[in-house]
Design a protein that fits this description.
The protein is of the alpha/beta class. 21% of the residues lie in helices and 23% in strands.
């Protein structure tokens, strides 16, 4: 998996102060997407064990109270991203007490395959659905268009 950006302190992508990772790779290519540079799977930088270690360390750093991890992109549930995302969310669950995990995906919940569904066992919130420019609504919290649904899972 590759990633474009990692923000160790983010207050935009989910509630509270968070760590946010923007991964590479998206098959949806939604017109009006604000993050087109992340569409290509091989764009960005390799997501290494060192990057995962830094995310875990940042989530556990008591100097800044972080509520959790946000995963966006690109698409964290792109088939090529799922193995690395699954390992990351499993580590967060095992090593970071009390942190929530939010995932944004262009897939709808009812479109997810068995591998993608495994990720959902470890996350708290899934925001699903493609961004649709004709349904764009800047007043929505944590969503770009009104077709997107916030699923509170755990």
């Amino acid at each position: 998996m590759n990633y474009h950006q990692y923000y160790p302190v983010d207050v935009i992508n989910g509630p509270g102060t968070r760590c946010t990772l923007f991964v590479s790779g998206c098959v949806h290519e939604c017109p009006g997407c604000y993050n087109k540079s992340t569409w290509r799977v091989n764009s960005g930088k390799p997501f290494t064990d060192a990057v995962a270690d830094r995310i875990i360390a940042d989530l556990n750093d008591t100097r800044i109270k972080r509520q959790g991890l946000s995963l966006s992109g690109g698409d964290p549930l792109h088939p090529q991203n799922v193995p690395a995302i699954l390992r990351l969310v499993q580590r967060v669950r095992a090593e970071c007490v009390g942190k929530d995990i939010w995932v944004w995906t262009g897939y709808r919940l009812d479109e997810l395959n068995s591998e993608q569904l495994q990720v959902l066992e470890y996350i708290n919130v899934l925001i699903d659905g493609k961004f649709m420019q004709d349904l764009k609504n800047p007043s929505l919290i944590w969503r770009g268009s009104s077709n997107q649904v916030i699923h509170h899972l755990h």
